[in-house]
Amino acid sequence: MTFPRVKRGTRGYNIAEVDAFIAEARIAYDSNIAGASTLTSHAIRDTSFGLAKGGYSTRHVDGALERLETAFAERERAVALATMGEAAWLEQASRNSAELTARFSREPKHRFSRVGFLSQGYAIKDVDAFADRVLAYLLQGEPLSVADVRSVTFRAARGGYDEAQVDAVLDALVDLLLSLGNN
């Protein structure tokens, strides 16, 4: 698989790194042995590539990685259902949902740790607005997709929420959505 390349003087993803990763992912996905692959949907989400002049279009590669992550997550869900059974799988999804509900139910301005006053973090108002949307999904079943979570952006603000903590919770939310098939 090849991707469109950026213009000559523009930086895109390193072609050799992307090609190597896609080849590894193809082999891992084509493996018919459950659990034989060490590549997971979560590992795909955490994948990053160096930038190089004339590299692959980041938009196109990122889109392909999102589709690949979804495909791996669907397979992981099928394997989990087959090995754990539906009741155990639903119990695990329920526990994960309860943990996220507890986090997002916290009072606004207190949902995440804050960085120091002079440090940059995510704007509290932005994160809390999205947290309310997540809570509406978790409690009332309002629509929320993996794409909604992946595309959310927050402004930077001094004394804001700790970015690493917010990102980790959003990763857990993506894991939950993928496990439930809310692509």
Automatic annotation (TrEMBL):
InterPro entries found in the cross-reference section: CHP03543, DivIVA_domain
Species of provenance: Aurantimicrobium photophilum
Domain of life according to the entry: Bacteria
Protein name per Swiss-Prot or TrEMBL: Cell cycle protein GpsB
